[in-house]
Design brief:
Blueprint lengths: L2 E6 L10 E5 L5 E4 L1 E2 L2 H8 L11 E2 L5 H17 L1
Antiparallel strand pairs: 1-2, 2-3, 4-5
Length: about 80
């Protein structure tokens, strides 16, 4: 599995998170983000359970351009699969 780095939140205080990648084989997104706090997690759970193998993460709106780039890349890869 090869990951193509998309970007890191330009306002990250640690320079590490949130971060986005695209799996070059499957066109899946890989997202590193902030864990949802208890309030946000409770809101997410209003629509259903979250399996123990999954989690809710927050990605800031300022990363929309990076996510759009990841979506465009994934769409191109899916079209070529």
């Amino acid at each position: 599995m090869a990951l193509r780095f998309i970007g890191i939140d330009p306002d990250s205080d640690t320079g590490q998170c949130p971060t986005g990648w695209v799996d070059e084989d499957t066109a899946d997104f890989v997202i590193q983000g902030w864990k949802a706090d208890e309030f946000m997690l409770a809101r997410c759970l209003e629509t259903g359970s979250i399996p123990h193998t999954e989690g809710a993460v927050r990605i800031p709106a300022r990363m929309v351009a990076m996510l759009r780039e990841a979506c465009d890349d994934a769409e191109r890869r899916c079209a070529g699969l």
